[in-house]
């Protein structure tokens, strides 16, 4: 059985999980949320690299996997090269979808919304220089959207006014960006609410489909004789708190069999 680990600081990786299982239905998945250090967008680079390397190394020793997906833009833009050097299995990361956004924008104004740390990463600037140098790329950093996405999965209603306030700097522009890059895996969970902020319509672009295709390409070829057990999905978190209790039903509703504490220092 092919086994995948999807990793994030919170629940944003669920947007990647949903795309992956659509394209690779014969893959079992572990989901690990490092909520003890949530949100990653507020951590310095060395802290993030050290935490990721230690936590993931411990997890895969007790839960062997064929591939790791770092379903977090903040982590990917900082630690991907270090993790690939550390592990002997494929490590796939997510980065802001600047290239596809630049291909579909009609008015050449693109809005990149991500965590403040991702906005400022050298990697992000390099993506803009390479794929959107002929576009106007507006940047907006927000951790509030991350928290709103987490709250939405617990069943709380998303405050549309709070969401509109985040995008206020762009909503008063004429013309507005016609394409937004959702540069955090949490943000696709708020697609409907974000779209409602832009009365004239807007393209919303994220990395989910592209990452799922990459995963399907890199996984070992599926062989029916290897399918000795049914596909399973198991989720873990690193800190027991009230939020995780509220999130449990969301994971179970998505097909996960369990949502348990993974103890790591």
Give a description of the structure.
The chain has 265 residues and is of the alpha/beta class. It folds into 2 domains: 3-94 and 209-261, Rossmann fold (3-Layer(aba) Sandwich); 98-206, Rossmann fold (3-Layer(aba) Sandwich). 44% of the residues lie in helices and 18% in strands. The protein is built from 12 helices and 10 strands. It has helices at 13-23, 45-62, 73-86, 98-104, 116-120, 122-131, 144-153, 160-166, 168-171, 191-197, 208-218, 242-253, and strands at 3-8, 28-33, 67-70, 91-93, 109-114, 136-141, 179-182, 203-205, 233-237, 258-261. Strands 4-3-1-2-9-10 form a 6-stranded parallel sheet, sandwiched between helices. Strands 6-5-7-8 form a 4-stranded parallel sheet. The model has no long low-confidence stretch (mean pLDDT 91).
Backbone shape:
globular
Low-confidence stretches: none
**Main sheet attributes: strand count, strand direction, barrel closure:** 6 strands, parallel
Annotation field: number of helices: 12
* Estimated share of beta-strand residues: 15-25%
Task: Give the CATH architecture of the largest domain.
Answer: 3-Layer(aba) Sandwich
CATH class descriptor of the largest domain: Alpha Beta
The number of domains is 2
Could you tell me the mean pLDDT?
Answer: 91
C-alpha end-to-end distance: 30 Å
CATH topology name of the largest domain, in short, is Rossmann fold
Number of DSSP strand runs? 10
Helix share, percent: 40-55%
Topology pattern, helix = H, strand = E: EHEHEHEHEHHEHHHEHEHEHE
User: Radius of gyration from the CA trace?
Assistant: 18 Å
- Structural class label: alpha/beta
Sequence of strands across the biggest β-sheet: 4-3-1-2-9-10
